[in-house]
Write a structure and sequence with these properties.
By secondary structure, the chain is of the alpha+beta class. The chain is built from four helices and six strands; from the N terminus they run ββαβαβαββα. The strands form two sheets. The chain has a four-stranded mixed β-sheet with strand order 3-4-6-5, covered by helices on one side. α2 links the parallel β3 and β4. The chain is flat. One of its GO terms (biological process) is ribosome disassembly.
């Protein structure tokens, strides 16, 4: 009686190595499914990029800083790139100071994961959100939503309570 089964080494690192008699095709399929499931359950880190120039205007800087803050609040990492052109390449300290200023401005939302380094015409720095920043942002949203709902609820019962009193005072 032939069962079309194979001798499969399940745990080769164990002492002694563990083997099972099973269908090898089914074993390969199940291990592929487990690998796919484990990849699906992993957290995908999203890296957003924000590009700046060394001679950026104050309003433009504030706008870019707002974008970086929004990305960090959402739980994404942010790669900040300073692009140097022409003579600006001879003054990398301007870009370094700008990156330090940005890191200080968003210090309450994130930290410097990779410090500023120059590669060619660009200087880059990676900011990462603090641990639990995304959950804190969600908690703040739910608290604000609950407070908004609580503010709207008392207004309706007061008008409903005032209506019977008005009817009792003015019987028709």
């Amino acid at each position: 009686m032939e069962a079309d089964l194979d001798l499969v080494e399940v745990a080769p690192d164990a002492r002694p190595p563990v083997c099972k008699i099973m269908d090898y095709g089914k074993f390969k399929y199940e291990t592929a499914q487990k690998a796919r499931e484990s990849r699906k359950n992993q957290v995908q880190t999203v890296i957003k990029e924000q590009k700046l120039r060394p001679k950026i205007d104050d309003h433009d800087y504030a706008t870019k800083r707002g974008h970086v803050m929004r990305f960090l609040e959402a739980g994404s990492k942010v790669k900040v790139t300073i692009m140097f052109r022409g003579r600006e390449q001879s003054r990398p300290e301007l870009g370094f100071r700008l990156l330090q200023r940005l890191a200080a401005d968003v210090a309450d939302l994130g930290f410097v994961e990779t410090s500023a380094k120059q590669d060619g015409r660009n200087m880059t720095m990676v900011l990462a959100p603090h641990k639990g920043a995304k959950t804190r942002a969600k908690a703040q949203q739910t608290v604000s939503a609950q407070s908004n709902a609580a503010q709207q609820r008392p207004a309706a019962p007061e008008t409903a309570a005032a209506a019977p009193e008005a009817q009792a005072a003015n019987p028709q």
